[in-house]
Structure formats: structure tokens, C-alpha cells
Amino acid sequence: MPNGFYKFNPKTLSFEKVKLGFRHIAKRMVWVFLSGIAFGLLFIWIAFYVIDSPKEKLLEKENNELKAEVEELNTRIDLMSKVLLDIEDRDDNVYRTILEADPVPASERYPLLSVRSDGDSLSRSEASAMLKEANKKADKLMVRLAAQTKSLDELEQIADKKSEMLNCIPAIRPLKNMYSVTSGFGRRYHPVLKTLRSHTGVDIAAPKGTPIYATADGVVTSENPGSGYGICVVIKHGYTYKTLYAHMSKKTVKAGQKVKRGQLIGYVGTSGMATGSHLHYEVIKGDQRVNPVYYFYSDITPEEYNAILESSKKVNQSLS
């Protein structure tokens, strides 16, 4: 093997040994070094940008899984947003309307609108941990939303029943423009026997033919409280309430008929054991007769109510 470099000399037609200087050796070393660097850079580029390493493939798989979880979480959040919109709509347009309350301000209903992200980048492990925590919170929120929706449904049913119940409670005067009671509820003198006896309603004197109105929604029953009541109408209102209207000259409703509060049901008369033209009116709650005066409150002023209340307290003679 040659111990150095040789160069062909055309003049002598022979190979002559060349002595390499320091500069020539340095240039060759630099060329070899730069070639090595270039080859190394090419290898690195191919390794990083052309060929996926096992670690990169694993990271890509994990990123795809995180992406799928984020998409699922976004779907659940969209569902929860729809549920919340329904709750907010009922809150503003049903319950707050009934209670005459102002809608919830947007700043209170959507407090997160004023919160800004700090924009800091997160590592993969931190992002994964935050995603898991967000999923836990979403699960809890879904449970709470379901419970709240059920509660609102129940409240809506209660509100409907409450409205129905209020319509079934006697609340108006059976005769319009009545400002006093001829004979009140309690112990009163019997018009014939002249002795104190229990008077289970109130007597309201009025001219014969004066219209009589139902004091609450209900159904006319076929009950017959006795001949002493004369022409009589008994209305069953539900929620344990009934009302009785006696000594009519004529009734305009029949058994089984549904009536509304304020509907005409008959006219004042003197039928039965009546000593004068009047209406005997009773309110029955459960099995107990109660003072009808306490149920005059929907169509009356405080002054009118006080006048009726004072007249009902007088221990005088009843008209039937």
C-alpha cells in the first residue's frame, strides 16, 4: 500500500511522490468535516420530517384519543347548553312572570363571559389532566341539570294545580253589590221558634229575582239538603270545598253541569222555610260548615269587607 500521494508528471512520463503541506492537509480535513456535518443534517432531517419514530407514533395515537375525548365533551356540553336554555326560558317566561319578578341579569347568568384565559401553553400531561377533570365536572353537571329539570317540571305541575285550586276556592260574593249580611254565621234566633239555634250560613236580603252567581269553579251536584231549603243549588268545587245556595225562586243550572266562578246559577226567592226574600249561602270545607264571610275577598274593597264583617257579627233573627 502506498505511503503517500503520487502525481503523474507528463514531462518525465513517471509518477512522482507529492509532499503535502499543512495547508493542503487542513483543507482536506475541513472538507471532510463539512461533508460529515452536511450528511448528519440530512440524516436528522430525514429522521424527524420523513420517518415517524415509535415515540411520535405513540404521541399521535394519544393526540387522536384526546381529540376524540374533546369532541365527545363538546357534544355533551352542547346538550347541557340546550337543557340550560330550556331552564332559563322557563325561569324568565314562566316562574318569574307568575311571580312578577325581573329576569336574571346576563352578567349573573353568564359570569364566565367576563373571564379571560391567560393563554399559557400546557404540556400534554397537564392538558390530559385538565380534560379528565372537565369530564368529571361535566358528569356532575349533567346529574344536577337532570335533577333541576325534574324539579322545574314538578314546580310547573304544582303551579298548574295551584291555579286550579285557587279557582276552586269560594272567593267572591254570591250577589253583586251586596254590602251587608242580614243574618250572620253562628247562633241566631230562629224566625219561628224565637230561640237561639245554630245558623250554618249567612242570610243576604235581596229583592226577588236578584241574580245569584257561583263563587268558584265546580260541578253542580244532585244533593237535596231538605225541603226547608226550597229551590237549592249545591256546587262541589273539589279540594274538599262545596257551596250551597238556598231559597231560590229559580235555578238556571242542573246536576252534573260544570260552572265557572261568576256564572249565573239562579235567582233570589222565598222558596222553602223563608220569611222573606233572601239568599241563604253556605260554605262547606270537608264536613264542616265555615263562616262564608271569610271567603269574600276577591271582588271587594277592605271597607266593604269590614262593613259586611261587622253586620255578620250581630246576633239577630235569621230569615230561614
Task: Give a structural overview.
The protein contains five helices and 13 strands. With 320 residues, it is α+β, with helices and mostly antiparallel strands. The chain folds into three domains: 46 residues; 90 residues, no CATH class; 127 residues, Glucose Permease (Domain IIA). Helix 2 runs parallel beside helix 4. The longest helix has 45 residues. The protein is rod-shaped. 19% of the residues are buried. About 2% of the residues have low confidence.
Summary tags:
single chain, 320 residues, alpha+beta, Glucose Permease (Domain IIA), two-stranded antiparallel sheet, rod-shaped
**Class from helix and strand fractions:** alpha+beta
Number of strands: 13
* CATH-derived topology of the largest domain: Glucose Permease (Domain IIA)
**N-to-C order of helices and strands:** EEHHHHEEEEEEEEEEEH
List the helices and strands and how they pair.
Elements: E1 5-9, E2 14-18, H1 22-50, H2 54-98, H3 106-109, H4 124-168, E3 186-189, E4 196-199, E5 202-205, E6 211-213, E7 218-220, E8 231-238, E9 241-251, E10 258-259, E11 264-268, E12 278-285, E13 288-290, H5 302-312
Antiparallel strand pairs: 1-2, 3-4, 5-12, 6-11, 7-8, 7-10, 8-9, 9-11, 9-12, 12-13
Helix pairs in contact: 2-4
Quick structural overview:
The protein has about 325 residues and is α+β, with helices and mostly antiparallel strands. About 40% of the residues lie in helices and about 20% in strands.
